[in-house]
Amino acid sequence: MDLKISLILLDWSVRESFHLLYYLSKQRLPRNQFEVIVIEYYSSVSAAIKKFDDQVDTWLLLEMPKNCYYHKHLMYNVGIAMAKGEILIICDSDAMVKPSFLESVLLAFQNNSDIVLHLDQFRNHRKDLYPFCFPSFEEVIGTGCINNIGGKTKGIVLAEDPLHECNYGACLCAKRADLLRIGGADEHIDFIGHICGPYDLTFRLINSGKKEVWHQDEFLYHTWHPGQAGVDNYLGPHDGRHMSTTALEALYSRRTAPHVTNPVMKFLNDKDKKYSISNLEKFLISSENLLITPTEFLESNKSKEWAKKTYLYFTYLGYQIVREDGQYRAGLILNYLKDKSHTLKSSQLDFLKREIRSNILHSILDFSKFFYLIKYFFENLKKHFLNFQKKYKIIVKLQPKISNKFSIIFKYKLINYFINNLLIFVLFFLRNFYFIKEILRKYFTKIVNIFIEKKLNVNYLISLLVNLSCIDKPRDNEIFLFINSSFIGYFLISFSISFLNKEFITVQKIKNDKELQECLMQLHSREKLSYVIVSRACFLQFQSNFLQVQAKLSNLSMNVI
Protein backbone atom coordinates (compact mmCIF):
# COMPACT_ATOMS: atom_id res chain seq x y z
CA MET A 1 0.00 0.00 0.00
CA ASP A 2 1.32 3.47 -0.91
CA LEU A 3 2.63 5.69 1.87
CA LYS A 4 0.06 8.50 2.26
CA ILE A 5 1.37 10.75 5.06
CA SER A 6 4.74 11.78 6.48
CA LEU A 7 4.79 13.47 9.91
CA ILE A 8 7.75 15.78 10.57
CA LEU A 9 8.48 16.34 14.27
CA LEU A 10 11.22 18.66 15.54
CA ASP A 11 13.42 18.93 18.62
CA TRP A 12 16.41 21.07 19.55
CA SER A 13 17.28 19.34 22.84
CA VAL A 14 14.36 21.00 24.65
CA ARG A 15 11.42 18.56 24.53
CA GLU A 16 10.67 17.01 27.90
CA SER A 17 7.87 14.93 26.40
CA PHE A 18 7.15 13.50 22.95
CA HIS A 19 3.72 12.16 23.86
CA LEU A 20 2.37 12.82 20.34
CA LEU A 21 4.11 9.54 19.45
CA TYR A 22 1.87 7.71 21.93
CA TYR A 23 -1.28 9.16 20.34
CA LEU A 24 0.01 8.28 16.86
CA SER A 25 0.10 4.64 17.95
CA LYS A 26 -3.68 4.87 18.51
CA GLN A 27 -4.59 6.16 15.04
CA ARG A 28 -7.36 4.52 13.01
CA LEU A 29 -5.35 5.02 9.82
CA PRO A 30 -3.33 1.82 9.12
CA ARG A 31 0.28 2.16 10.31
CA ASN A 32 1.70 1.27 6.88
CA GLN A 33 0.03 4.38 5.40
CA PHE A 34 2.06 6.93 7.40
CA GLU A 35 5.63 7.44 8.54
CA VAL A 36 7.12 9.44 11.43
CA ILE A 37 10.31 11.48 10.95
CA VAL A 38 11.98 13.03 14.01
CA ILE A 39 14.67 15.67 13.47
CA GLU A 40 17.01 16.70 16.31
CA TYR A 41 18.92 19.94 15.65
CA TYR A 42 21.89 19.11 17.86
CA SER A 43 23.41 15.73 18.84
CA SER A 44 21.24 14.73 21.80
CA VAL A 45 19.51 11.37 21.82
CA SER A 46 16.30 12.31 23.61
CA ALA A 47 15.10 10.05 26.42
CA ALA A 48 11.57 11.35 25.76
CA ILE A 49 11.68 9.88 22.24
CA LYS A 50 13.27 6.62 23.36
CA LYS A 51 10.06 5.82 25.29
CA PHE A 52 8.22 5.61 21.98
CA ASP A 53 11.02 4.83 19.52
CA ASP A 54 8.98 1.94 18.08
CA GLN A 55 6.76 4.65 16.55
CA VAL A 56 9.68 6.46 14.85
CA ASP A 57 10.59 5.47 11.29
CA THR A 58 13.43 7.96 10.72
CA TRP A 59 15.41 9.70 13.48
CA LEU A 60 17.95 12.27 12.30
CA LEU A 61 20.58 14.13 14.32
CA LEU A 62 21.76 17.25 12.45
CA GLU A 63 24.69 17.62 14.91
CA MET A 64 24.76 21.41 14.67
CA PRO A 65 27.36 23.06 16.95
CA LYS A 66 26.05 24.00 20.41
CA ASN A 67 26.73 27.71 19.81
CA CYS A 68 24.31 27.71 16.84
CA TYR A 69 20.77 28.89 17.53
CA TYR A 70 17.95 26.57 16.47
CA HIS A 71 16.57 27.11 12.97
CA LYS A 72 13.19 25.39 12.51
CA HIS A 73 13.00 26.25 8.81
CA LEU A 74 16.22 24.32 8.17
CA MET A 75 14.68 21.36 10.00
CA TYR A 76 11.47 21.68 7.93
CA ASN A 77 13.55 21.37 4.76
CA VAL A 78 15.39 18.33 6.06
CA GLY A 79 12.01 16.74 6.76
CA ILE A 80 10.62 17.66 3.34
CA ALA A 81 13.70 16.16 1.66
CA MET A 82 13.57 12.91 3.64
CA ALA A 83 9.80 12.39 3.48
CA LYS A 84 8.30 9.69 1.26
CA GLY A 85 4.61 10.44 1.83
CA GLU A 86 2.37 12.39 -0.52
CA ILE A 87 1.02 14.62 2.30
CA LEU A 88 3.38 16.19 4.85
CA ILE A 89 2.30 17.15 8.37
CA ILE A 90 4.42 19.54 10.43
CA CYS A 91 3.01 19.70 13.95
CA ASP A 92 3.75 20.04 17.67
CA SER A 93 5.61 17.06 19.10
CA ASP A 94 4.10 17.55 22.56
CA ALA A 95 0.42 17.72 21.60
CA MET A 96 -2.43 15.25 21.99
CA VAL A 97 -4.50 14.10 19.00
CA LYS A 98 -7.59 11.91 18.71
CA PRO A 99 -7.56 8.54 16.86
CA SER A 100 -9.29 10.23 13.91
CA PHE A 101 -6.47 12.79 13.42
CA LEU A 102 -4.64 11.30 10.41
CA GLU A 103 -7.82 9.93 8.88
CA SER A 104 -9.38 13.43 8.93
CA VAL A 105 -6.31 14.96 7.24
CA LEU A 106 -6.32 12.33 4.49
CA LEU A 107 -10.06 12.78 3.89
CA ALA A 108 -9.69 16.57 3.58
CA PHE A 109 -7.13 16.16 0.77
CA GLN A 110 -9.23 13.51 -0.95
CA ASN A 111 -12.12 15.99 -1.04
CA ASN A 112 -9.92 18.82 -2.36
CA SER A 113 -6.27 18.36 -3.30
CA ASP A 114 -5.64 22.08 -3.97
CA ILE A 115 -5.52 23.13 -0.33
CA VAL A 116 -3.11 23.89 2.47
CA LEU A 117 -4.73 22.53 5.63
CA HIS A 118 -4.34 23.75 9.22
CA LEU A 119 -5.61 22.24 12.45
CA ASP A 120 -6.05 24.59 15.40
CA GLN A 121 -5.08 23.73 18.96
CA PHE A 122 -6.85 23.85 22.33
CA ARG A 123 -4.44 25.24 24.95
CA ASN A 124 -4.77 24.59 28.66
CA HIS A 125 -2.70 26.65 31.14
CA ARG A 126 -3.22 24.48 34.21
CA LYS A 127 0.21 23.94 35.77
CA ASP A 128 -0.92 20.85 37.66
CA LEU A 129 -0.96 18.99 34.32
CA TYR A 130 2.84 19.42 34.15
CA PRO A 131 4.82 17.19 33.82
CA PHE A 132 2.54 15.68 31.21
CA CYS A 133 0.27 13.13 32.88
CA PHE A 134 -1.92 11.92 29.99
CA PRO A 135 -5.11 13.82 30.89
CA SER A 136 -8.34 13.10 29.03
CA PHE A 137 -9.33 15.29 26.06
CA GLU A 138 -12.32 16.53 28.09
CA GLU A 139 -9.97 17.62 30.87
CA VAL A 140 -7.78 19.62 28.47
CA ILE A 141 -10.73 21.57 27.02
CA GLY A 142 -12.27 22.03 30.49
CA THR A 143 -11.01 24.12 33.41
CA GLY A 144 -7.91 26.10 32.46
CA CYS A 145 -8.51 26.00 28.69
CA ILE A 146 -8.04 29.54 27.35
CA ASN A 147 -9.61 29.20 23.89
CA ASN A 148 -12.56 26.80 24.07
CA ILE A 149 -15.86 28.22 22.79
CA GLY A 150 -18.58 25.57 22.62
CA GLY A 151 -16.24 22.74 21.71
CA LYS A 152 -14.31 24.69 19.05
CA THR A 153 -11.29 26.96 19.33
CA LYS A 154 -11.72 30.73 19.65
CA GLY A 155 -9.84 31.34 16.39
CA ILE A 156 -12.24 29.11 14.45
CA VAL A 157 -15.45 30.46 16.04
CA LEU A 158 -14.83 34.21 16.19
CA ALA A 159 -12.34 34.71 13.35
CA GLU A 160 -11.91 38.39 14.33
CA ASP A 161 -8.14 38.14 14.12
CA PRO A 162 -7.31 34.74 12.57
CA LEU A 163 -3.62 35.55 12.15
CA HIS A 164 -3.18 35.73 15.91
CA GLU A 165 -6.15 33.84 17.36
CA CYS A 166 -5.62 30.69 15.25
CA ASN A 167 -2.45 28.74 16.03
CA TYR A 168 -0.64 28.60 12.67
CA GLY A 169 2.27 26.74 14.25
CA ALA A 170 0.21 23.88 15.70
CA CYS A 171 -0.30 21.76 12.59
CA LEU A 172 0.31 22.38 8.89
CA CYS A 173 -0.68 19.80 6.28
CA ALA A 174 0.37 20.21 2.64
CA LYS A 175 1.28 18.08 -0.34
CA ARG A 176 5.02 17.47 -0.66
CA ALA A 177 4.96 18.30 -4.38
CA ASP A 178 3.39 21.70 -3.61
CA LEU A 179 6.02 22.47 -0.96
CA LEU A 180 8.83 21.58 -3.37
CA ARG A 181 7.23 23.74 -6.07
CA ILE A 182 7.49 26.88 -3.88
CA GLY A 183 11.09 26.09 -2.91
CA GLY A 184 10.48 24.62 0.54
CA ALA A 185 10.85 26.54 3.78
CA ASP A 186 12.58 29.94 3.75
CA GLU A 187 15.99 29.71 5.47
CA HIS A 188 16.38 33.49 5.75
CA ILE A 189 18.07 34.73 8.94
CA ASP A 190 14.79 36.41 10.01
CA PHE A 191 13.33 32.95 10.77
CA ILE A 192 16.04 31.79 13.17
CA GLY A 193 14.82 31.29 16.75
CA HIS A 194 11.29 31.78 18.07
CA ILE A 195 9.84 34.00 15.30
CA CYS A 196 9.25 31.32 12.71
CA GLY A 197 6.72 28.73 11.74
CA PRO A 198 5.02 26.80 8.96
CA TYR A 199 2.72 29.77 8.22
CA ASP A 200 5.45 31.16 5.94
CA LEU A 201 4.87 28.05 3.81
CA THR A 202 1.10 28.61 4.07
CA PHE A 203 1.22 32.20 2.83
CA ARG A 204 3.41 31.30 -0.15
CA LEU A 205 1.21 28.30 -0.99
CA ILE A 206 -1.79 30.64 -1.01
CA ASN A 207 0.10 32.90 -3.42
CA SER A 208 0.73 29.87 -5.66
CA GLY A 209 -3.01 29.23 -5.92
CA LYS A 210 -3.74 26.89 -3.00
CA LYS A 211 -6.72 27.50 -0.71
CA GLU A 212 -6.11 27.93 3.02
CA VAL A 213 -8.48 25.66 4.98
CA TRP A 214 -8.91 25.28 8.74
CA HIS A 215 -10.41 21.97 9.81
CA GLN A 216 -13.68 22.60 11.63
CA ASP A 217 -13.90 19.36 13.61
CA GLU A 218 -10.39 18.01 14.21
CA PHE A 219 -8.04 19.70 16.72
CA LEU A 220 -4.79 19.28 18.62
CA TYR A 221 -4.68 19.51 22.44
CA HIS A 222 -1.81 21.15 24.34
CA THR A 223 -1.03 21.42 28.05
CA TRP A 224 1.21 23.95 29.78
CA HIS A 225 4.96 23.50 30.09
CA PRO A 226 7.78 25.96 30.91
CA GLY A 227 9.14 28.09 28.06
CA GLN A 228 6.18 27.55 25.72
CA ALA A 229 5.84 31.30 24.94
CA GLY A 230 9.41 31.71 23.70
CA VAL A 231 10.63 33.58 26.81
CA ASP A 232 14.31 34.60 26.53
CA ASN A 233 14.46 33.19 22.98
CA TYR A 234 16.11 35.01 20.09
CA LEU A 235 13.39 36.91 18.21
CA GLY A 236 13.54 37.90 14.55
CA PRO A 237 11.40 40.77 13.16
CA HIS A 238 7.73 40.41 14.14
CA ASP A 239 4.49 42.40 14.38
CA GLY A 240 4.49 42.75 18.16
CA ARG A 241 2.47 39.56 18.61
CA HIS A 242 5.15 37.12 17.46
CA MET A 243 3.95 36.82 13.84
CA SER A 244 6.91 37.19 11.46
CA THR A 245 6.72 40.39 9.40
CA THR A 246 8.93 38.73 6.79
CA ALA A 247 6.26 36.05 6.35
CA LEU A 248 3.49 38.68 6.30
CA GLU A 249 5.36 40.52 3.54
CA ALA A 250 4.82 37.47 1.31
CA LEU A 251 1.06 37.92 1.63
CA TYR A 252 0.92 41.45 0.23
CA SER A 253 3.81 41.12 -2.24
CA ARG A 254 2.36 37.82 -3.64
CA ARG A 255 5.78 36.22 -3.31
CA THR A 256 5.94 32.43 -3.77
CA ALA A 257 9.71 31.82 -3.65
CA PRO A 258 11.70 31.86 -0.39
CA HIS A 259 14.26 34.62 0.15
CA VAL A 260 16.87 31.92 0.87
CA THR A 261 16.33 28.53 -0.75
CA ASN A 262 17.93 25.34 0.51
CA PRO A 263 20.12 23.97 -2.34
CA VAL A 264 18.55 20.51 -2.03
CA MET A 265 15.05 21.97 -2.54
CA LYS A 266 16.17 23.33 -5.91
CA PHE A 267 17.48 19.89 -6.89
CA LEU A 268 14.38 18.00 -5.73
CA ASN A 269 12.10 20.37 -7.64
CA ASP A 270 13.85 19.48 -10.92
CA LYS A 271 11.89 16.49 -12.20
CA ASP A 272 14.44 15.76 -14.93
CA LYS A 273 17.23 15.04 -12.46
CA LYS A 274 17.62 11.63 -10.93
CA TYR A 275 18.85 11.62 -7.36
CA SER A 276 19.45 9.55 -4.29
CA ILE A 277 18.59 11.10 -0.92
CA SER A 278 21.77 9.64 0.60
CA ASN A 279 23.81 11.60 -1.96
CA LEU A 280 21.96 14.84 -1.18
CA GLU A 281 22.12 14.68 2.63
CA LYS A 282 25.49 16.40 2.84
CA PHE A 283 24.10 19.46 1.01
CA LEU A 284 21.10 19.99 3.32
CA ILE A 285 23.08 22.10 5.79
CA SER A 286 24.81 24.89 3.87
CA SER A 287 27.90 26.78 4.97
CA GLU A 288 25.68 29.88 5.28
CA ASN A 289 23.64 28.17 8.01
CA LEU A 290 26.80 27.53 9.98
CA LEU A 291 27.78 31.20 9.51
CA ILE A 292 24.53 32.94 10.51
CA THR A 293 23.15 30.73 13.32
CA PRO A 294 25.84 31.29 16.02
CA THR A 295 24.53 33.46 18.86
CA GLU A 296 27.43 35.94 18.56
CA PHE A 297 26.55 36.60 14.90
CA LEU A 298 22.83 37.05 15.60
CA GLU A 299 23.51 39.57 18.37
CA SER A 300 25.89 41.65 16.23
CA ASN A 301 25.15 44.32 13.61
CA LYS A 302 26.35 41.88 10.96
CA SER A 303 23.06 39.99 11.26
CA LYS A 304 21.05 43.05 10.12
CA GLU A 305 23.40 43.62 7.19
CA TRP A 306 23.11 39.95 6.24
CA ALA A 307 19.31 40.10 6.43
CA LYS A 308 19.15 43.08 4.06
CA LYS A 309 21.45 41.60 1.44
CA THR A 310 19.61 38.26 1.39
CA TYR A 311 16.08 39.60 0.83
CA LEU A 312 14.83 38.60 -2.61
CA TYR A 313 11.74 40.82 -2.79
CA PHE A 314 11.15 44.48 -1.94
CA THR A 315 8.29 46.89 -2.49
CA TYR A 316 9.19 50.48 -3.29
CA LEU A 317 6.93 53.33 -4.49
CA GLY A 318 4.41 50.99 -6.10
CA TYR A 319 7.12 48.76 -7.64
CA GLN A 320 8.05 45.16 -6.90
CA ILE A 321 11.83 44.68 -6.80
CA VAL A 322 13.29 41.18 -7.21
CA ARG A 323 16.92 40.17 -6.65
CA GLU A 324 18.03 37.33 -8.89
CA ASP A 325 21.50 36.14 -9.96
CA GLY A 326 23.17 39.28 -8.61
CA GLN A 327 20.77 41.56 -10.53
CA TYR A 328 17.83 43.64 -9.31
CA ARG A 329 14.71 43.78 -11.48
CA ALA A 330 11.68 45.98 -10.88
CA GLY A 331 8.18 46.27 -12.26
CA LEU A 332 4.94 47.94 -11.27
CA ILE A 333 3.18 45.84 -8.63
CA LEU A 334 -0.04 45.47 -10.60
CA ASN A 335 1.86 44.51 -13.75
CA TYR A 336 3.92 42.06 -11.72
CA LEU A 337 0.78 40.43 -10.33
CA LYS A 338 -0.61 39.95 -13.84
CA ASP A 339 2.34 38.73 -15.88
CA LYS A 340 5.49 38.89 -13.69
CA SER A 341 6.96 41.41 -16.12
CA HIS A 342 9.82 43.64 -15.05
CA THR A 343 10.88 46.76 -16.84
CA LEU A 344 13.93 48.05 -14.96
CA LYS A 345 17.21 46.26 -14.26
CA SER A 346 20.40 47.10 -12.39
CA SER A 347 23.15 45.42 -10.41
CA GLN A 348 22.95 48.21 -7.78
CA LEU A 349 19.85 48.57 -5.59
CA ASP A 350 20.36 52.31 -4.96
CA PHE A 351 20.72 52.96 -8.69
CA LEU A 352 17.54 50.97 -9.39
CA LYS A 353 15.62 53.02 -6.81
CA ARG A 354 16.77 56.19 -8.56
CA GLU A 355 15.57 54.67 -11.84
CA ILE A 356 12.20 53.90 -10.26
CA ARG A 357 11.82 57.46 -9.01
CA SER A 358 12.65 58.69 -12.49
CA ASN A 359 10.44 56.11 -14.18
CA ILE A 360 7.49 57.02 -11.97
CA LEU A 361 7.65 60.56 -13.29
CA HIS A 362 7.96 59.44 -16.90
CA SER A 363 5.20 56.86 -16.54
CA ILE A 364 2.78 59.69 -15.84
CA LEU A 365 4.28 61.56 -18.84
CA ASP A 366 5.50 64.48 -16.76
CA PHE A 367 2.12 64.95 -15.12
CA SER A 368 3.49 64.22 -11.67
CA LYS A 369 6.42 66.57 -12.27
CA PHE A 370 3.95 69.38 -12.13
CA PHE A 371 3.08 68.48 -8.53
CA TYR A 372 6.73 68.34 -7.61
CA LEU A 373 7.20 71.77 -9.20
CA ILE A 374 4.31 73.16 -7.18
CA LYS A 375 5.65 71.58 -4.02
CA TYR A 376 9.17 72.86 -4.72
CA PHE A 377 7.85 76.34 -5.61
CA PHE A 378 5.82 76.82 -2.44
CA GLU A 379 8.44 75.27 -0.18
CA ASN A 380 11.01 77.73 -1.54
CA LEU A 381 8.55 80.60 -1.36
CA LYS A 382 7.97 79.79 2.30
CA LYS A 383 11.72 79.50 2.90
CA HIS A 384 12.35 82.88 1.23
CA PHE A 385 9.61 84.49 3.27
CA LEU A 386 10.83 83.10 6.60
CA ASN A 387 14.36 84.15 5.74
CA PHE A 388 13.15 87.67 4.96
CA GLN A 389 11.10 87.81 8.16
CA LYS A 390 14.14 86.86 10.25
CA LYS A 391 16.43 89.39 8.56
CA TYR A 392 13.75 92.10 8.64
CA LYS A 393 13.33 91.80 12.43
CA ILE A 394 17.08 92.11 12.91
CA ILE A 395 17.31 95.17 10.63
CA VAL A 396 14.35 96.92 12.32
CA LYS A 397 16.10 96.52 15.65
CA LEU A 398 19.46 97.76 14.37
CA GLN A 399 18.45 100.42 11.90
CA PRO A 400 14.73 101.21 11.40
CA LYS A 401 15.43 103.63 8.53
CA ILE A 402 16.86 100.91 6.29
CA SER A 403 14.00 98.51 6.88
CA ASN A 404 11.72 100.06 4.24
CA LYS A 405 14.40 99.84 1.54
CA PHE A 406 15.16 96.25 2.48
CA SER A 407 11.46 95.43 2.26
CA ILE A 408 11.27 96.86 -1.28
CA ILE A 409 14.34 94.85 -2.38
CA PHE A 410 12.85 91.66 -0.93
CA LYS A 411 9.51 92.24 -2.65
CA TYR A 412 11.33 92.70 -5.96
CA LYS A 413 13.25 89.41 -5.49
CA LEU A 414 10.09 87.60 -4.48
CA ILE A 415 8.21 88.87 -7.54
CA ASN A 416 11.15 87.93 -9.77
CA TYR A 417 11.23 84.42 -8.29
CA PHE A 418 7.48 84.05 -8.75
CA ILE A 419 7.53 85.22 -12.40
CA ASN A 420 10.43 82.93 -13.34
CA ASN A 421 8.71 79.87 -11.86
CA LEU A 422 5.38 80.88 -13.37
CA LEU A 423 7.05 80.82 -16.81
CA ILE A 424 8.22 77.26 -16.10
CA PHE A 425 4.65 76.22 -15.32
CA VAL A 426 3.29 77.94 -18.43
CA LEU A 427 5.87 76.25 -20.67
CA PHE A 428 5.09 72.91 -19.03
CA PHE A 429 1.36 73.31 -19.71
CA LEU A 430 1.92 74.38 -23.31
CA ARG A 431 4.20 71.42 -23.97
CA ASN A 432 1.82 68.86 -22.37
CA PHE A 433 -1.51 70.62 -22.81
CA TYR A 434 -3.33 67.86 -24.72
CA PHE A 435 -2.21 65.07 -22.43
CA ILE A 436 -3.02 67.01 -19.24
CA LYS A 437 -6.41 67.94 -20.61
CA GLU A 438 -7.22 64.27 -21.34
CA ILE A 439 -6.11 63.09 -17.91
CA LEU A 440 -8.02 65.81 -16.11
CA ARG A 441 -11.12 65.11 -18.19
CA LYS A 442 -10.92 61.36 -17.77
CA TYR A 443 -10.57 60.50 -14.11
CA PHE A 444 -7.75 62.19 -12.20
CA THR A 445 -9.42 65.54 -11.53
CA LYS A 446 -11.19 64.64 -8.32
CA ILE A 447 -8.29 62.60 -6.96
CA VAL A 448 -5.96 65.55 -7.52
CA ASN A 449 -8.40 67.90 -5.82
CA ILE A 450 -8.69 65.59 -2.85
CA PHE A 451 -4.94 65.42 -2.42
CA ILE A 452 -4.36 69.15 -2.82
CA GLU A 453 -7.28 70.25 -0.64
CA LYS A 454 -6.43 67.81 2.14
CA LYS A 455 -2.66 68.41 1.84
CA LEU A 456 -1.80 64.72 1.47
CA ASN A 457 1.75 63.62 0.70
CA VAL A 458 2.60 63.99 -3.01
CA ASN A 459 4.37 60.61 -3.00
CA TYR A 460 1.06 58.88 -2.24
CA LEU A 461 -0.50 60.59 -5.24
CA ILE A 462 2.29 59.51 -7.58
CA SER A 463 2.18 55.88 -6.39
CA LEU A 464 -1.59 55.87 -6.79
CA LEU A 465 -1.42 57.30 -10.31
CA VAL A 466 1.21 54.78 -11.34
CA ASN A 467 -0.84 51.85 -10.07
CA LEU A 468 -4.08 53.16 -11.53
CA SER A 469 -2.46 53.45 -14.94
CA CYS A 470 -2.07 49.64 -14.98
CA ILE A 471 -5.58 48.63 -13.97
CA ASP A 472 -7.60 46.90 -16.65
CA LYS A 473 -10.16 45.04 -14.55
CA PRO A 474 -13.93 44.91 -15.42
CA ARG A 475 -15.66 48.26 -15.36
CA ASP A 476 -17.76 47.90 -12.21
CA ASN A 477 -15.12 46.61 -9.83
CA GLU A 478 -14.31 48.84 -6.87
CA ILE A 479 -11.00 50.08 -5.53
CA PHE A 480 -10.32 51.33 -2.03
CA LEU A 481 -7.38 53.51 -1.11
CA PHE A 482 -6.44 53.81 2.56
CA ILE A 483 -4.10 56.66 3.43
CA ASN A 484 -2.49 57.46 6.76
CA SER A 485 -1.51 61.12 6.91
CA SER A 486 -0.06 63.20 9.71
CA PHE A 487 -2.38 66.03 8.61
CA ILE A 488 -5.75 64.31 8.80
CA GLY A 489 -5.30 60.80 10.21
CA TYR A 490 -6.91 57.97 8.25
CA PHE A 491 -8.60 58.77 5.00
CA LEU A 492 -10.60 56.52 2.71
CA ILE A 493 -11.13 57.12 -0.98
CA SER A 494 -13.34 54.62 -2.78
CA PHE A 495 -14.14 54.57 -6.45
CA SER A 496 -15.35 52.34 -9.23
CA ILE A 497 -13.46 51.79 -12.46
CA SER A 498 -16.45 53.13 -14.40
CA PHE A 499 -14.37 56.05 -15.61
CA LEU A 500 -17.13 57.53 -17.75
CA ASN A 501 -19.29 58.02 -14.67
CA LYS A 502 -18.63 61.54 -13.39
CA GLU A 503 -19.59 60.67 -9.81
CA PHE A 504 -17.40 57.60 -9.46
CA ILE A 505 -15.42 58.86 -6.45
CA THR A 506 -16.69 58.96 -2.88
CA VAL A 507 -14.65 60.37 -0.02
CA GLN A 508 -14.91 59.42 3.63
CA LYS A 509 -12.94 60.85 6.54
CA ILE A 510 -12.19 58.20 9.15
CA LYS A 511 -12.06 59.82 12.58
CA ASN A 512 -10.34 57.12 14.64
CA ASP A 513 -8.87 53.62 14.70
CA LYS A 514 -12.20 52.03 15.65
CA GLU A 515 -13.91 53.51 12.58
CA LEU A 516 -11.13 52.19 10.35
CA GLN A 517 -11.56 48.67 11.74
CA GLU A 518 -15.34 48.87 11.31
CA CYS A 519 -14.84 50.05 7.73
CA LEU A 520 -12.57 47.10 6.99
CA MET A 521 -15.09 44.67 8.46
CA GLN A 522 -17.81 46.11 6.20
CA LEU A 523 -15.68 45.34 3.14
CA HIS A 524 -16.27 41.60 3.69
CA SER A 525 -19.71 41.89 2.10
CA ARG A 526 -18.57 43.79 -1.00
CA GLU A 527 -18.43 41.15 -3.71
CA LYS A 528 -17.22 43.58 -6.39
CA LEU A 529 -14.17 44.75 -4.44
CA SER A 530 -11.08 44.09 -6.58
CA TYR A 531 -8.23 46.22 -5.21
CA VAL A 532 -7.16 47.66 -1.91
CA ILE A 533 -4.30 50.15 -2.14
CA VAL A 534 -2.97 51.08 1.29
CA SER A 535 -0.15 53.24 2.58
CA ARG A 536 2.58 51.29 4.37
CA ALA A 537 2.10 53.26 7.63
CA CYS A 538 -1.59 52.40 7.69
CA PHE A 539 -1.01 48.74 6.75
CA LEU A 540 1.61 48.11 9.43
CA GLN A 541 -0.73 49.41 12.14
CA PHE A 542 -3.76 47.39 11.03
CA GLN A 543 -2.25 44.58 8.98
CA SER A 544 -4.30 41.85 10.66
CA ASN A 545 -7.53 43.64 9.64
CA PHE A 546 -6.38 44.19 6.07
CA LEU A 547 -5.19 40.59 5.74
CA GLN A 548 -8.49 39.33 7.16
CA VAL A 549 -10.34 41.16 4.37
CA GLN A 550 -7.90 39.67 1.86
CA ALA A 551 -8.43 36.15 3.25
CA LYS A 552 -12.21 36.50 2.93
CA LEU A 553 -12.07 37.76 -0.67
CA SER A 554 -10.01 35.35 -2.77
CA ASN A 555 -10.00 37.62 -5.86
CA LEU A 556 -8.79 40.69 -3.95
CA SER A 557 -5.43 42.26 -4.81
CA MET A 558 -3.85 44.29 -2.01
CA ASN A 559 -0.98 46.67 -2.72
CA VAL A 560 1.05 48.48 -0.08
CA ILE A 561 2.62 51.76 -1.25
Task: Provide a descriptive summary of the structure in words.
The chain is an alpha/beta fold. It has three domains: 5-282, Spore Coat Polysaccharide Biosynthesis Protein SpsA, Chain A (Alpha-Beta Complex), CATH 3.90.550; 312-361, no CATH class; 457-561, Nucleotidyltransferase, domain 5. Helices cover 43% and strands 18% of the residues. It contains 24 helices and 21 strands. A hairpin with an 8-residue loop joins strand 18 (489-496) and strand 19. Helix 9 (199-207) packs parallel to helix 10 (245-253). The longest helix is centred in the C-terminal third of the chain and has 32 residues, at 367-398. The two termini are 52 Å apart. The model is unreliable at 361-370 and 438-508 (pLDDT under 50).
- At CATH level 2, the architecture of the largest domain is Alpha-Beta Complex
Calculate the terminal CA-CA distance, rounded to whole Å: 52 Å
Strand content: 15-25%
Shape: globular
Uncertain parts: 361-370, 438-508
Largest sheet strand order: 3-2-1-4-10-6-11
* The level-1 CATH class of the largest domain: Alpha Beta
Helix amount, in percent? 40-55%
- How confident overall, as mean pLDDT? 75
CATH topology of the largest domain: Spore Coat Polysaccharide Biosynthesis Protein SpsA, Chain A
Q: Supply the CATH superfamily name of the largest domain.
A: Spore Coat Polysaccharide Biosynthesis Protein SpsA, Chain A
Which structural class is indicated by helix and strand composition? alpha/beta
> What is the number of independent domains?
3
Radius of gyration: 29 Å
Largest sheet features? 7 strands, mixed
Number of strands: 21
User: If helices are DSSP runs of H or I spanning 4 or more residues, what is the number of helices?
Assistant: 24
